[in-house]
Amino acid sequence: MSDRSPAPGALELVQALVNTVDLESGADALDTAEGRARFGLAEADLAGARELRESLRAVLLAHAGHPPHRAVTPLGELLAAAPLVVAVDTADGSATLTAASGGRLASRVAAAVAQGLVDGTWTRLKACEAADCHWAYYDRSPAGRGRWCSMQVCGARAKMRRYRAK
């Protein structure tokens, strides 16, 4: 949906996961083997991945100041069991949080969220306010008050609805 550039760093994983479903058409990339392979998912992992995706969408809607799209398991609960490891570079001593061995999707998402918190980018990852979209996008606007994934599509539709309502 979005014509915006992807989220920076590890947040691109979160954005990509949230955007695996097109709410307008109902098409879900996780229904295909190729779509699951992108995230290292087996068919048995689908229910958990979809639950994680919708919990992330609810948080991204909150970042944009909108209520959740539906009742979901709180993201904190899903990520609480995601094992992370502090990796320390022996050359320069820098440290990062990474997914524990095995690289479960929840662990990789938790590491991405942690990195976004450290970088100050986490709250700029938002979900479009259009009820038939909720596409994840990274808000690069100076004030951080972006509302739509695409001004040309969702923004134009919302403005046209307001105009017609008058």
What does this 3D model show about the protein?
Helices cover 41% and strands 10% of the residues. The protein has helices spanning 11-18, 33-38, 46-63, 75-80, 105-119, 151-165, and strands at residues 84-88, 95-99, 125-127, 136-138. α1 (11-18) packs across α5. The longest helix has 18 residues, at 46-63.
Main attributes of the structure:
166 residues, mainly alpha, two-stranded antiparallel ribbon, two-stranded antiparallel sheet, globular
Gyration radius from CA atoms, angstroms: 17 Å
- The count of strands amounts to 4
- Give the SSE string: HHHHEEHEEH
Strands of the biggest beta sheet: in what spatial order?
Answer: 1-2
Poorly predicted regions: none
| Proportion of beta-strand residues | 5-15%
> By helix and strand content, what is the structural category?
mainly alpha
Biggest sheet features: 2 strands, antiparallel
C-alpha geometry: globular
Summed up, the helix count is 6
What is the overall pLDDT average? Answer: 88
- Distance between the ends: 28 Å
Helix content: 40-55%
Task: Detail the topology: elements first, then pairings.
Layout (H helix, E strand, L loop, with lengths): L10 H8 L14 H6 L7 H18 L11 H6 L3 E5 L6 E5 L5 H15 L5 E3 L8 E3 L12 H15 L1
Antiparallel strand pairs: 1-2, 3-4
Helix pairs in contact: 1-5
